[in-house]
Design a protein that fits this description.
mainly alpha, 2 helices, 74% helix
């Protein structure tokens, strides 16, 4: 999670899980249908996790 602070890592993991639960199936479907390249699949997850992490910190 790129942090040495355990609590921050837990928050980041929770944020990423939240995004995956809401967007994961869309991303998997796009990958299966060749609408999204594997290298590009990480971006939507990370963007969503970043936004969710900001919400957690607020």
């Amino acid at each position: 999670m790129r942090t040495e602070i355990p609590l921050d890592a837990v928050k980041r993991s929770a944020a990423l899980l939240t995004v995956y639960e809401t967007e994961g199936q869309k991303i998997v479907d796009a990958l299966k249908n060749n609408l999204l390249a594997p290298a590009d699949a990480k971006s939507p997850l990370m963007e969503g996790a970043t936004m969710t992490t900001a919400d957690i910190k607020a």
